Amino acid sequence: MKQSYLKKPYSFLLVSAMVLTMFPAFSTSVHAEENQSPTKEQFSTVEELKSYDTNDNDGVKNPAKVYFGNNNQQWWIAGSQSNNSLTLFSASSMGDGVQFESNYMANKTYDDKWNCTYPNGEPAEVFPNHYGASYIRNVTLKEMETSFFTGSEQALINETTIYTDDTKNNSVYSTTEKLYLAYGDQEDYNHITVGKNSANDLNDGLRIDPSYWGESILELFWIRSPFVSNDDPNDGSNVLTAWPSKNYPAFNGAQTNNDSLENIRPAFELNSSTILFASAVPTATSTGNLTLQDTDGDGAFTLRYDASKYSKNLGSAVISYDDSKVILTDVPNGTYLVSQNSNGAYAKQITNETEVSASGMNLDNFANCKIWLETTDTANRITYAALAEKEQETAVNIVAGAGLNITSNNGVQEVVPNTAITDIIVEAVDGYFLPDGYEDRIQGLNGLTVTKMTKNGFAISGTPISDVNITLPPATKKVYSMILSGNGTFTGTCVGYQPIIAKEFTITNDGNIDLENIDISITGTDKDKFELIGDGTITIQPSDTIKVTVTPKDSLAAGVYQATLTVTADNIKTATTELQFTVNGHDYVAVVTPPSCTEKGYTTYTCRNCGHSYKGNEVDATGHTWGEWKVIKEATTTETGKKERVCERCDYKETAVISMISNEEQPTTSTKSDTAVKTGDSTNILLWGMVTVISLAGVITLLFFKRRKCR
Question: What number does CATH give the domain 482-584?
């Protein structure tokens, strides 16, 4: 098998001795004074994991490894290129005797399936050493993604865009993939790089010095850089390999089909957004001691993933304030409680426990320990964890709102859990008060209570169950306000008046403070001319009212009487209403009412000032003055007739009945005195006289004709 070398081959030195340092962990009780927190190399947060690197050229050696994938594969942390990622490089070969490309002699026609991106368009063909077209990239690494990692692990591998040179076309191109090979500069063989690089500087990725690939592990492995032969620049059959050597690591050009020596050590970017922390102790599988591993030597960190980000409910663990126990809440059976300090770690499988004492985990106390709950999905090789929280002093921070003052000057306190606070005394400042129900507006006391509540202040006392951080609701500004309503002007009247109707006045408290020491009085020059009637109330609560009445006294002489209704109370201006009552002399106006046919006449005298009136100067009624009778209906032998007459003064009408006429009735002359009512109507006398004359004429004529017949 033909190989080209950059440097004269050196003899491989086989390292046959390895030192394994084992840390005894919790084999005996660890006394409190011996407890030391785990070092960064024993327990690392995500941010601390991102601080590790494989660049010794900066003068600081800060290496660490993590387990990830099959067979507890170890990976060097090369560094971090984003907030939520770690770039990892395989610490050992993941495949031996791997070909880069099977045919090292023939150029390849470009294929879009390679998904290579060129800045100036795709070429027609490429050399056999073209990484983007290689079998190792398109087949070996792709198969390794699925065969070497579980589905859950694959989900944590980010895609990375990397640039590689194309020596046939004198260009660079980019590819995007999960697993990829490191890059090396043929002229600078002191290090290799992984992670994102740039088209302008292919070697500006994360540096990996030979300490992590060329000194301790003596095996050649492929890198993706094409080898350029000094003898024939158009020879594209060789690819760089990293050639480890304890004394002088170097790069080597190897034909792409070399399958005897070259191994594969890929790199990838791990998504760190769900990592909770990393520990140098392996995952717990049983109750007992866990051994610390050397994370930059033969061992590696075991990653723990945040259970909450995977919706895994592990319950909660709280370290007691005195470090004597861990309080467990809703922890599923089978979950492990792990405690780690600088000496080692201990795991206890939980079975219905609600608390675990330090002595139960071979400790005097839990001071300076990292404590967490964990469970492992062995099929997916993911360990979910939840860190225990430390029970802290309960912090109380109460701030006075507007109009309040904490007179005890202890609104900020820190107390040991389950311990009562020192009473906090709160008072309303001058001009403010605490309305009814104020205490109901105080939220967030978390176990504290309001006591000794008055309008001027209160106390806060008790034992908080958690931190208290509140601003008290503001006190209410005192508002003193009083309204006196009512009309104080009485209707004027005259001397000798009847008692005047009293006027009502209303006093309203429209402020928010009791009006106390109410005093109601009538003041002024004529105060003794009015009478005040009140209810004797001396306090009016907000929105309440009282009523009083005022009336002028009786039998006042003519004149204008004035006074003032005055109301006073503590802390408020006086309220007043003017009173006025006028008494006048009478000023009568006479109105004459003349007599009528039936009613007497009189004169009415009415006072212009008060409306008082009386009647005098009566005159007798005049009686009716009748006109002549008029027949309205003639009487017959079968019906009565009707007649009427009208008063000439008032148009009053009077009617009378005319008797029926008898068939045998003869006209007669009566010598008797007329006893009929003298009405003044002579119509019937004339009628009957005419009837009598006509009847006599008829009789005489009849007798005359009879006598002539007899002759």
Answer: 2.60.40.10
